[in-house]
Amino acid sequence: MKYVLVTGGVVSGLGKAITASSVGVLLQSCGLRVTCIKIDPYLNYDAGTISPYEHGEVFVLDDGSEVDLDLGNYERFLDTKLTRDNNITYGKIQQYVMEKERKGDYLGETVQIVPHITDTIREWVERVAMIPVDGKEGPPDVCIIELGGTIGDNESRPFTDALSQLSYSVGPDNFCLIHVTLVPVLSVVGEQKTKPTQHSIRDLRGLRLTPNIIACRSTKVLEESVKAKLSRLCYLPIQNIISLYDVHNIWHIPLMLKDQKAHEAISKVLNLSRIAKEPCLEKWASLVEISDNLNVPVRIAIVGKYTDLSDAYLSVLKALFHASVAIRKKLVVDMVPSCDLEKTTKKKDSRAYEAAWRLLKDADGVLLPGGFGDRGIEGMILAAKYARENNIPFLGICLGMQIAVIEFARSLLCLPGANSTEFEPETKHPCIIFMPEGSKTHMGGTMRLGSRRTYFHVKDSKSARLYGNKEFVDERHRHRYEVNPDMVASLEKAGLSFAAKDETGERMEIVEVPSHPFFIGAQFHPEYKSRPGKVSPLILGLIAASCGELEGVLNSVSSHQDNQTIVLGKEARVGPKNWF
């Protein structure tokens, strides 16, 4: 097994995950099979109970694990299906070691960070690295490991020790370390400064980890003199100093790495010349060219609770981008704080209220994403009402679907008190209720999580047609509340259609308003499985409806049951033949 470790220095947020994912794409283009591991040094068992404002969105895998959003980047770039073990946290490692200690597996030893914690980390990495994630049999060729945080962080020390041991045990021909650092430009001086990188490399070597490649983040292309200086002072060949400058589209990064022959540097370190081919990124480059030359805008308003941080809706944003590229439109996203749509904001801050409503009314389509808690809920209900009454294309995801049901009950069933028991436990008209199998005492890992099967009950519904008229689909879930089955009949009588349900027929999965041009809610999260070449059908439908091209998409999907080749007008816009 060959290992590529990606670490970060100087500051956090440099884009280690994008670097790791792009290295993976580059190695895949060389004919190598790749897997990924993300290490998060925090004590949480997983990301499930962490606020979006702390670490961005919680990404959900097929097996129901709630993981760091970086695993979403890996899956999207590499088109893989990862598992819970591909995300290592200190909480998981500690729990595993303590359970062994309680069972007596250490035979009376004094359990310590070294060697018990570090050995567990190393063994975990070596075990997971051998598990295929691309649907093929046999182990991958390369495992890319991203170490979260910044070199020098106290909480990372057990992991740096373990990875140092791993590099020694597998040997230098099987371990390549890429260190991502910052090369800042001070406005007063106006030159690229190398001192932070030099200090970061010194710290890294002090941890018994030797970098093979330095990936320098900067606002502009790294100057040759700066490369030469880093090469001389960090004792690396100049071709192993890679410039990762700012770009408007992260899809450029694999091409940037290829242009600087990063694959050759990695191949030389790992002795891959016998199994690696020349990289072929023609299809990727074609995709980048298409996305860079989109001019006709489509404007989508995301009305949510966590709009101050775009990473809170990262997968939604990526899925919208995938769909807009497929439809050949330039995506414009307006983040609308749902609380700013409420009348209470009008009294406190009329400017914020007017700005929020202006963004909503200017949108071609509206998306209500997932979330928890009662803050901003009334604003989301107002957004759903506005989209329904004004024939604006609408997609509600998870909480967004529940909001659509509540709004429909209030407006069409004339039940002004209709609500979710999450927000109003004693409501007289509970449209949304707590799932009977859920836990009210433990929060972590107790929701309905992971890939679940959804069966279509209305065959001619827009959602069924978008999915290619399949009998069922498998999508990822993350919720603990659901539509109240006792209210389904009255809602359907008022004009709401429950187009898809779970295997029991009791749990509502997709809701539609048939009389509306496009008004769909999904209990699952379609964004989690969206890929550049495998666009989420429901999000594709939202973009198409927002552009006035929904009928063309529906007709194309109907004539191509695999739902991957969608022809609009004279050119194929979605499909395996002209994507990758």
Automatic annotation (TrEMBL):
Domain of life where this protein originates: Eukaryota
GO MF annotations, alphabetized: ATP binding; CTP synthase activity; identical protein binding
Stored Pfam families: CTP_synth_N, GATase
Annotated Gene3D superfamilies: 3.40.50.880, P-loop containing nucleotide triphosphate hydrolases
Catalysed reaction equations from the record: UTP + L-glutamine + ATP + H2O = CTP + L-glutamate + ADP + phosphate + 2 H(+)
Domain Glutamine amidotransferase: from-to ranges: 309-543
Top-level EC class as recorded in UniProt: ligase
A biological-process GO annotation: pyrimidine nucleobase biosynthetic process
InterPro entries per the UniProt record, alphabetical: Class_I_gatase-like, CTP_synthase, CTP_synthase_N, GATASE, GATase1_CTP_Synthase, P-loop_NTPase
Pathway recorded for this protein: Pyrimidine metabolism; CTP biosynthesis via de novo pathway; CTP from UDP: step 2/2
Domain CTP synthase N-terminal: residue ranges: 2-272
CDD domains to which the protein is assigned, alphabetical: CTPS_N (cd03113), GATase1_CTP_Synthase (cd01746)
UniProt keyword Calcium present: no
UniProt-listed Enzyme Commission number(s): 6.3.4.2
Keyword entries, A-Z: ATP-binding, Glutamine amidotransferase, Ligase, Nucleotide-binding, Pyrimidine biosynthesis
PANTHER family: CTP SYNTHASE (PTHR11550)
Similarity comment: Belongs to the CTP synthase family.
Role summary: Catalyzes the ATP-dependent amination of UTP to CTP with either L-glutamine or ammonia as the source of nitrogen.
Annotated protein name in UniProt: CTP synthase
